[in-house]
Write a structure and sequence with these properties.
CATH architecture of the largest domain: 3-Layer(aba) Sandwich
CATH topology of the largest domain: Rossmann fold
Order of helices and strands: EEHHEEEEEEHHEHEHEHHEEHHHH
Oligomer: single chain
Largest sheet: 6 strands, mixed
Shape: elongated
CATH superfamily of the largest domain: P-loop containing nucleotide triphosphate hydrolases
Distance between the termini: 71 Å
Structural class: alpha/beta
Strand content: 15-25%
Strand order of the largest sheet: 8-10-11-12-9-13
CATH class of the largest domain: Alpha Beta
C-alpha cells in the first residue's frame, strides 16, 4: 500500500526514525479512515443535473430535466436563493434540489461563431461608394449617434440585407462598418444554425443574440442567410421543419419582446429570389442593398487598393487592366494581383511588370472557365 501521502500528511515524519506502537497505531487508523472515506464516495449515487424554469414559492421549484418537467422540493439552505435558469443538482430518489452549480446557457456558441474587432476600413473597399453611404446610415450612425435619431423621432432599422454575386464585397462591407462603429463583429454562417437534434437550432440562435447583447455595441453578420430563411412550405421532412423552427426563432429575436438595443443585424445572400418575405418585411431586415459586380471605375479603384503597397514597374497601367478585367468581382481582382506577385517572384524580380498582370489575368480566366464547365457538367 502507498503511504506516501495520506490526507496531505507525509509519512517521512513516521519513517525517519523507528515508530513507537502508539505512533504506528495512529498512522494505521488514519490510513483506514482515509480509505473508508474514499469508499463512501463510490457508494454515493450520482446527482441529477437540471435547470430551474419556474419558482412557484420558496420551498418548491419547477425543474427541466432532459425533456421532462418536475415539481420538486428545495433544501432549507437554498430556500429563497434560487433563480430562473439556475443549473442545479438534484437527489436521484426524491429529486430534491441540493445544490446550485451556476447559470444554464442554452447553447455554447463559442465553437461556431467568429468574434472579432475588424481592422477593415472604408479605404480598403473600392467601387461601392453608394452602398457604403447606405450601410453607414443604417448601421454606423445609429450606433455612434443615437441621440440624433431620438431628437428627430426616428427609429433606425434593425438591420440590412446585402445580396449579390459571390466575391463582390458583402463581408468586407459588414466588417468595415463594425470597425467604424467600434462594434464587436459576430460572424456566423447560417448553415451552422441548423443543428442535428430538434430544438437545438433555436437555442443556438437565442444564445448568439444573448452573446451579442453582452458584447454590445455589436453587429451580428449572418452569411448565406438563405440556408434558414428560404420560403416555407406546408409539408416537408422533419429536417425541413427544424429549419423552419430555427428561422422562427431568428424572427423572434429580431422583433421579439427583448429589444435588440445596440445590436445590429447584417444578413448576406446570393439568392434573394428564394428568401421568405417574412424576413424582409418592415420592422425586420427591410433595408435591402444590392452589391453588383464593379464597373470599370470600380475595378480601377479596387486595383489601386490592392496594389498600393506593391513595387510596380513603370509599364503597369491600372486603367488598362481595369478595362481588361470586365466581369471580374473584387475577389477575382485580388486573386489576379496576388498571382501577378507570384509571377514576379518566380522570375526573381523586385518589381511587378505589366506582363505579370496579363499572365495572372489569363490564369484567373482559365480557372473561371474550368469552374463554370465543371458546374455545367455537375448540374
Amino acid at each position: 500500500m502507498d503511504y506516501e501521502n495520506i490526507e496531505g500528511k507525509s509519512s517521512v515524519g513516521y519513517f525517519s526514525r523507528p515508530m513507537s506502537l502508539e505512533e504506528e497505531n495512529e498512522f494505521l487508523k488514519e490510513t483506514v479512515n482515509h480509505l473508508r472515506r474514499e469508499l463512501e464516495k463510490f457508494k454515493k449515487p450520482p446527482l441529477i443535473v437540471g435547470t430551474v424554469i419556474e419558482i412557484p414559492d420558496k420551498e418548491h421549484a419547477i425543474v427541466q430535466i432532459n425533456t421532462g418537467r418536475f415539481y420538486v422540493n428545495v433544501i432549507d439552505e437554498l430556500k429563497g436563493k434560487l433563480r430562473v435558469d439556475d443549473k442545479v443538482l438534484l437527489d436521484q430518489r426524491s429529486l430534491t434540489i441540493v445544490n446550485v452549480i451556476g447559470k444554464d446557457k442554452p447553447f455554447d456558441v463559442s465553437g461556431f461563431v467568429v468574434i472579432e474587432k475588424p481592422t477593415i476600413t472604408w479605404e480598403d473597399i473600392g467601387g461601392l461608394e453608394e452602398q457604403i453611404r447606405e450601410i453607414r446610415e443604417v448601421i454606423e450612425y445609429p450606433l455612434l449617434y443615437p441621440e440624433k435619431f431620438k431628437k428627430l423621432g426616428i427609429e433606425p432599422p434593425k438591420g440590412i440585407l446585402l445580396y449579390g454575386p459571390p466575391g463582390t464585397g458583402k463581408t468586407l462591407l459588414a466588417k468595415a462598418v463594425a470597425h467604424h462603429s467600434n462594434a464587436t463583429f459576430i460572424e456566423i454562417v447560417a448553415s451552422e444554425l441548423v443543428q442535428k437534434y430538434i430544438g437545438e437550432g433555436s437555442k443556438f440562435v437565442k444564445s448568439i443574440f444573448e452573446l451579442a447583447r453582452e458584447k454590445a455595441p455589436s453587429i451580428v453578420f449572418i452569411d448565406e442567410v438563405d440556408a434558414i430563411a428560404a420560403k416555407r412550405i406546408e409539408l416537408g421532412t422533419s429536417g425541413e421543419r427544424e429549419v423552419q423552427r430555427t428561422f422562427m426563432q431568428l424572427l423572434a429575436e429580431i422583433d421579439g419582446f427583448t429589444p435588440l438595443g445596440d445590436v445590429k443585424i447584417i444578413a448576406a445572400t446570393n439568392r434573394l429570389d428564394i428568401l421568405d418575405p417574412a424576413i424582409t418585411r418592415p420592422g425586420r431586415l427591410d433595408r435591402i442593398l444590392y452589391i453588383d459586380k464593379p464597373n470599370m471605375e470600380g475595378r480601377y479603384e479596387i486595383l489601386k487598393i490592392h496594389t498600393r503597397n506593391m513595387p510596380l514597374a513603370k509599364d503597369v497601367n491600372l486603367r488598362e487592366l481595369a478595362s481588361l478585367t470586365k466581369g471580374f468581382v473584387g475577389a477575382d481582382i485580388k486573386a489576379m494581383v496576388t498571382e501577378a506577385g507570384y509571377f514576379a517572384l518566380r522570375n526573381n524580380r523586385s518589381k511587378i511588370k505589366m506582363e505579370d498582370f496579363i499572365n495572372a489575368l489569363m490564369k484567373i480566366r482559365k480557372k473561371r472557365k474550368e469552374h463554370e464547365t465543371e458546374k455545367t457538367y455537375i448540374y
